[in-house]
Amino acid sequence: MKNILIIFSLLALNLNSQSDSSKIKRAPTDTSKMLLNMDAVYNRPFLQYGKIPVALGGYMEANTNYAVTDGITEGLSFQMRRMTLFVSSSIHRKIKFLSEIEFEDGTKEINIEFAALDFQLHHLVNFRGGIIMNPIGGFNQNHDGPRWEFIDRPISATQLLPATFSNVGFGFYGKTYQPKYVWAYELYLTNGWNDRIIGNSQNKTYLPATKLDPERFEESFNGVPMTNAKTSLRFKGIGEIGLSYMGGVYNKFQDDGLTFDKKRRADVFAVDFNTSLRTKTNITAEFAWTFIDVPDTYTQQYGKKQHGGFIDIVQPLIKRPMFGFEKASFNIAMRAEYVDWNVGTFNETGGNIADDIFSIVPAISFRTSSQTVIRLNYRYQWQKDLLGNPASRTAAIQFGISSYF
User: Which fold has domain 61-82+134-404?
Assistant: First the structure.
């Protein structure tokens, strides 16, 4: 963090000492229409000054929130969801470094989400090491706020899967281009889960709780690496489909050579899809299944199987110069999402175990460009408890802005 602040300070001094603003330029981004979710990590707007080998960028998100749950409200709140900084450098034409540092809720949380060195050996064999963003589903790789019409991140990506989940590790990735399709893969070994999956304040099986252990960037919780693999295929004129897997041992099964439990695994499978129709309608969908080996001594409120996902539909209505913005657009959108944290039935009665949530989010947005969005969302959701009692209902109105800088 100290080094990053020094870089920003030096850059600011150089900018102030030079009157020639032409030395400041945007680093080129890939404008190909055959991009994959895995390309999102580098395909961001960066600012570069002269011949300085470091490029800088980032984005911010701020919004209002007014929610009512079963007739009870805490009133209107203003939120600074996050500010994220990017620092990249081309050390060599075949060696690249990129870091992503996120400040959430002011500075309540500060996370290094990505800090990896890439060695480009061959288009099909590239080596990556450092803090890697685990490629599970599509959202985890392509999560930047300005790219979405919705203020809240998908429930399935934040409360079923651990959103922006990253770990220290190494691995390989590659891509091949053909005239009508692009195929790519990623394969990593990283530090992984910990027992917060079943030992958390939620009192249920909850994979996002594993992010609360900051020591995962220092050492493995149990010495067993997590395996993470993804393959993606995009057909020209059709869309991209991705299949991914992430899994490993989550419990500490031995200590000082003494084994006191079997190895218990948590495994996640996900499929994601995105396409753009001839009507310019954009569709993004993701669904995930989790399987957790929960000890038999735990009650049935700890689910052994979970699943959930979302689908977003975005339709541009007007796309022309507006209000002085040359590439402005006005859009309408809709999100439907669902998560079941406990798939199964009670042993005693055979009745369904609920513990699920469903929501719909209509939205309108105004984009001054692809990099800046003003958005208005209305959220309505139903959430049932473990026993399937009548659902609690929440309605929320949110207004917010998000932009790269």
Answer: Porin (2.40.160)
What is the pTM for the complete model shown? 0.90
Tens-digit pLDDT profile for residues 149-187: 999 999 999 999 998 999 999 999 999 999 999 999 999
pLDDT band at 22 (very low <50, low <70, confident <90, very high): low
pLDDT, tens digit, for every residue of 333-348?
Answer: 999 999 999 999 999 9
Average pLDDT over residues 200-221: 93
d(CA 191, CA 211): 12
Residues 205/304, Cβ–Cβ less than 8 Å: yes
Please report, for the chain, the start and end positions of each structural domain, with discontinuous segments joined by +. 61-82+134-404
